[in-house]
UniProtKB/TrEMBL annotation:
Keywords: DNA damage. Residues 103-181 form the Methylated-DNA-[protein]-cysteine S-methyltransferase DNA binding domain. The keyword DNA damage applies. CDD domains: ATase. One of its GO terms (biological process) is DNA repair. The keyword Cell membrane does not apply. This is Methylated-DNA--[protein]-cysteine S-methyltransferase. GO terms for molecular function: catalytic activity. PANTHER family: METHYLATED-DNA--PROTEIN-CYSTEINE METHYLTRANSFERASE.
Amino acid sequence: MSAPSPAVSDDTITTVITGGYATVDTPNGPFSVIADDSGRVLASGWTDDPAYLAALIHRSRRPETLQRSAALGSLTDAVTAYYAGEVDAPSRVEVVQLSGGTFLNKAWDALRLVEPGRPVTYTEFAERAGEPAAVRAAATACARNAAALFVPCHRVKRSDGSLGGFRYGLETKKWLLDFEAPAED
């Protein structure tokens, strides 16, 4: 797997005037992506409601207006490729999140390195983010992640092996983990 693009490209705070969004049909329902004018993911998830996703974007990055598009090039292509079996495709596009603090930024970058089919626990996730004692903060990073699938918070489970939470429902999380699981011989 190639190294993913960083979840945060810089700390510059600017308001995005116009953003684009597109929705792709998936086996888990409609999946929408909001992108900035540079083609970077600002938010994404299993919904056809761009207002819902826009509310997840930090106010300094939230577009003032959203323009619907049939597709968003490499971003929607990555979603389509994922569902066609190329499960690392979302890791190759750039994501911009700025929702608070250095730990969250490090955590989202660490999440992008969790390989498909190899879920980690919240404890392991905290360690990968450089703060082994910050297990609750790791869970918060998952909960505040605006870019589902591109920043794969679905690949984090509780230490007892149970799924934990997921903004888009445990049924979707289980489906994604099963889809990414390596085939058994």
